[in-house]
Amino acid sequence: EGGGDMAASAAGDAEDLCSPEVGELALLGLAPSAPSCPHGPALLFVKTSQGKKEGRRFYACSACRDRKDCNFFQWEDEKVSETRLAAREEYNRNHQPSFTHRQNVERYKNFLLLPLSKRRFCQECQQLLLPAEWEKHVDHQSLCGISTAQLQSPSQLLYPLENKKTNAQYLFADRSCQFLLDLIINLGFRRVLSVGTPRLHEMIQSKASQEDSRVRSLLLDIDFRYSQFYTEDEFCHYNMFNHHFFGGEVARETCRTFLYQDNGERVIMVTDPPFGGLVGALASSFKKLMSMWKEAEKGHSNQEMPVFWIFPYFFESRILDFFPSFSMMDYQVDYENHALYKHGKTGRRQSPVRIFTNLTPSMIVLPVEEGYRFCSICQRYVSSGNQHCEICNSCTSKDGRRWKHCVLCKKCVKPSWFHCNICNCCALQNHTCETIATGCFVCGKAGHKRSNCPSLSHT
Ligand code: SAH
Ligand code: ZN
Ligand code: ZN
Ligand code: ZN
Ligand code: ZN
């Protein structure tokens, strides 16, 4: 359970605990000749030491922040022998899933033909079992009598991956998922590119099978377990940190075709990436998906694919660095497997997760029954505690609490902050002035923390 550190990060200065870059590493990005690990092309990083950026460069796995999950490492200037290259290729092949997506689709068809009494799911292997395989799993815990409803909600059947660094899965609370889908439909979208949003995908799929809803979804996710439940037109095994389609050109084409909007069916991309960081890597993948849309849709040369990027509010400046056309909505996205991220009433914690979008803010109608109201000056919906500041001329709260204006800082700050004359800015009452005075971890300059380091903004 990651509740503990999540509790810590939602409290007070979450940005310190959820710093976008690992330690003193800076992301340089995806190099054209990058070597590959089982998760596709590795990313290029540089180790920086205080004050200078020209450390030694190296490649590491794009998807796994924890060395225990993927220990791929190579110095950029390292000579790799033929034998090691061959061994690496072999290793990458052996670390692919045991069934292909095609095989999983076949298995699913056979599974559906089974009577309820013979439908088993192995909880240990996280796999639907066909009767011939039961024997191999006798010692494993399994669920029996898997219903069609269960098959339509794989995110409930599969356990959420919990690895905090690599792939923690935080599933939307029903209320938030329903809100997102209603919003998407009301905005007139008929297709959703679901990038790392299996629960939204599943809500759309089951809606489509019940009603004559015309909304369709394509799920892109690194969690291959989902290939057991969806066809190749519904799911692509995808890594959003390096824009890698594990299914190669065929899968890429599936995505391209999906983005091609015929009969005026408008497309929106919705993504809810792991919060661990690497905003730069995510942004570069999303730009590639956006340009896929643009190529498919030659007519709209000066438009952007509509996007909802769901992410904590303290990444706002990082996201806007990469996507100046985006703005942050006040809506608090809630999660089911996070006590903390559940909807905050008085005394309860509020979710720090927001929607960033390139759609016109006034079009994003937030539920009045949950306290959101329309600010006619800002032309957007804001949370109930978010007061319009006359001096800033904007509704300035980021976290839903009422913020206060500091005349010395010339901006609104958190209610718990006070102006510190040593630091020359507002901070928590009990902060240590040195942290800022000694300077940023990455560039060594004073006046900002590593999470706001300007030298990292445009890598
Ligand atoms: N709130 C969403 C789930 C978000 S959790 C929902 O309820 O639908 C983050 C999701 O991103 C998970 O589904 C996880 O499998 C996926 N993910 C994590 N790392 C990824 C990567 N490198 N590439 C693609 N998807 C990834
Ligand atoms: Zn306002
Ligand atoms: Zn103000
Ligand atoms: Zn101040
Ligand atoms: Zn810095």
TrEMBL record:
Subcellular location(s) per record: Cytoplasm
Major localization listed first in the record, in broad terms: cytoplasm
Keywords linked to the UniProt accession: Cytoplasm, Metal-binding, Methyltransferase, S-adenosyl-L-methionine, Transferase, Zinc, Zinc-finger
Pfam families reported in the protein's UniProt record: N6-adenineMlase (PF10237), Zn_ribbon_GRF (PF06839)
Any Gene Ontology CC annotation: cytoplasm
Molecular-function GO terms, alphabetical: nucleic acid binding; rRNA (adenine-N6-)-methyltransferase activity; zinc ion binding
Domain CCHC-type: 440-455
Matches recorded under InterPro entries: Mlase_EEF1AKMT1/ZCCHC4, ZCCHC4, Znf_CCHC, Znf_GRF
Protein origin, superkingdom: Eukaryota
Claim: ATP-binding is one of the keywords in the record: no
All copies of domain GRF-type, residue ranges: 37-79
Keyword set includes Metal-binding: yes
PROSITE patterns xref list: DHHC (PS50216), ZF_CCHC (PS50158), ZF_GRF (PS51999)
PANTHER family, alphabetized: RRNA N6-ADENOSINE-METHYLTRANSFERASE ZCCHC4, ZINC FINGER CCHC DOMAIN-CONTAINING
The protein, known as: ZCHC4 protein
Organism: Bucco capensis (collared puffbird)
